[in-house]
Amino acid sequence: MTMTPLTSATAWQALTAHAETMAGTTIRALFDADPQRAGSFAAEGAGWYLDYAKQRVTAQTLELLCQLADERDLAGRREAMFAGQHINVTEDRAVLHTALRLPPGSSLVVDGVDVAADVHDVIARMGAFAEQVRGRTWLGFTGRPIRNIVNIGIGGSDLGPVMAYLALRHVSDRELVFRFVSNVDGTDFVEATRDLDPAETLFLVASKTFTTQETMTNARTARDWLVAGLGGDAAAVARHFVAISTNAEKVAAFGIDTANMFGFWDWVGGRYSMSSAIGLSTMLAIGPQRFAELLAGMHAMDTHFRTAPWRENLPALHGLLCVWNRNFLGATDQVVLPYDQYLLRFPAYLQQMIMESNGKRVTAAGEPVHWETSASFWGEPGTNGQHSFYQMLHQGTTIVPADFIFFARPVNDVGDHHDLLIANCLAQAGVMAFGRTAEEVAADGTPADLVEHKVMPGNRPNSTLVAETLTPFALGALVALYEHSTFVQGMIWDLNPYDQWGVQLGKLVADSIAPMLTGAAEPALDSSTNALIARYRAARGR
Ligand code: F6P
Predict the structure, then answer these.
(1) How far apart are CA 335 and CA 351, in angstroms?
(2) 202 pairs with which residues across the strands?
(3) What are the C-alpha distances in Å from 163 to residues 160, 347, 476, 529, 539?
(4) Hey, how many other C-beta atoms are within 10 angstroms of the C-beta on 196?
(5) Backbone φ and ψ of 121, nearest 5°
(6) Residue of minimum CA distance from atom 10 in ligand 1
(7) Per-residue pLDDT tens for 291-334?
């Protein structure tokens, strides 16, 4: 299907004109005009309820956004992804994280291979391994069972595993200790292992490429730490190291027996890999059965995304609202505010997923874009964020749309905590949307000189996502919702969300700078960097 440039699309132009007519409309006015609008601007799927009535949208906005989706062939592109076409054009790869959670017994033949069968082979091997570790029958080199599991990885090989472990701690084996090492800063490794006994420690080296500098540096340090701690015999590595990678050759070259390797495929992007073998730490923590529930939640959202009409489709609505806020209402940022302490690292996880995917300046065809692409995504769990950056969200000069997330039933039902937590969530969403006028502030008896200070402009668009309770299924569905929202945004913007060329140059330059820091080469860069290198070397006596 040949496409007109995005900004020439009929729906894009109609949305531009529509946004102008909406400029003076407030969320408050939208509710005044239709007090029951909550019923019209909500959708449900895979166990999640999305309320977007507090977005700055009308029925016409939605109609035009859905028209935009149709004009940009979102349905065709969605099918291309699910079918395994090589939509990652710059790397000539399929994008098939959805195949990682196909139910057992499924078949999906892509490029002549039944990828679903391969996926289930690996899941079965992971399951058998997890049962041994969890059953304490996988013994370390000295014959003691494993009690500590350290995942070494970075980016997609870390953020998903950390996020999922923290989110699902309540259903994990609490006798096992989980640590995550990502940063090349030696502190990360030292602090993660300082109280661990090597005889009871298993390292999972998670790296799609098995070449990433940070991960390989940490993996080598881990190997030295382990071998030194177990009397210097390198044979210990076989019982204490497992690799998760697509690169068997590099795994073997590192010294890990490929019998202890869990594979995945080049059609799994790093930031979409937590449902692949990269999720081994999650499976070790919660067990194969609950890991299967996580995958089932993802699959439920995949199916919902694939089949629901746009107006009932959570990922499509979410993604289209992101486009509306970014391109037509001018939002540069978006916050994600989980009102659940277990989702502590969910915003960090989303940052990579969304910003590494859609932080692009050229289309998939390599043409410069003439429209804004990804917003910055950030956030913290409520209520902590309320006592930190919410002041700016409420009264700052930049409007930052928000996603609120909560679960109706708490995992830890302690006193009245949960009612207070959710009261705060609903209060913040309402205040952001409706604010408080000068008249309302004055009517409270506020001294005249303080009235302006206390005015809350409101009109901050926000959505709320609600599920019944935090289970592996609910978490899986939530992750898949954001994965597909990211896809929707990327497709509307004509991007390839599945490459990340922007992170390569910094890696290469770092490789060239390292010898200048040690003294093996002389600084030969710009004067600013040369001066910083000189300072560093002086401090280190080089
Ligand atoms: O940051 C770049 C990146 O390639 C990410 O996309 C990826 O998740 C991360 O590095 C880690 O890569 P690997 O799993 O190959 O070590």
Answers:
(1) 10
(2) 149
(3) 5, 9, 12, 35, 37
(4) 18
(5) -60, -45
(6) 155
(7) 999 999 999 999 999 999 999 999 999 999 999 999 999 999 99
Q: What spacing in Å lies between the alpha carbon of 268 and ligand 1's midpoint?
A: 11
CA 212–ligand 1 middle distance (angstroms): 7
pLDDT in tens, 435-460: 999 999 999 999 999 999 999 999 99
Active site residues: 356, 387, 507
Q: Which residues are paired to 48 by β-bridges?
A: 45, 467
CA 377, CA 394: separation in Å to the nearest integer? 17
Q: What is the pTM of this model?
A: 0.97
The CA-based dihedral angle spanning residues 233, 235, 236, 240, taken in that order and rounded to the nearest 10 degrees: 150
pLDDT attached to residue 3 = 82
What is the pairing mode between strands 241-245 and 201-206?
A: parallel
Distance (Å, whole) CA 275 – CA 295: 7
Q: Is the CB of 212 under 6 A from ligand 1?
A: yes
C-alpha 203/C-alpha 183 separation (Å) is 15
Q: Which two tokens stand for residue 523?
A: 């600084």
- Give the model confidence (pLDDT) of 329-369 as tens digits: 999 999 999 999 999 999 999 999 999 999 999 999 999 99
Task: Compute the distance from residue 154 Cα to the ligand 1 centre, in Å.
Answer: 6
CA of 133 to the centre of ligand 1 (A): 27
Best residue among 503, 505, 508 to mutate for probing ligand 1's pocket (most ligand atoms within 8 Å of CB) is: 503
Amino acid of residue 21: T
94-116, pLDDT tens digit by residue? 999 999 999 999 999 999 999 99
Strand ranges across the sheet with 201-206: 177-181, 148-152, 201-206, 241-245, 261-263
DSSP labels, 294-349: HHHHHHHHHHHHHHS-GGG-HHHHHHHHHHIIIIIS---EEEEEES-GGGTTHHHH
Residue 270, ligand 1, Cβ within 6 A: yes
Q: Is the pLDDT of residue 1 over 70?
A: no
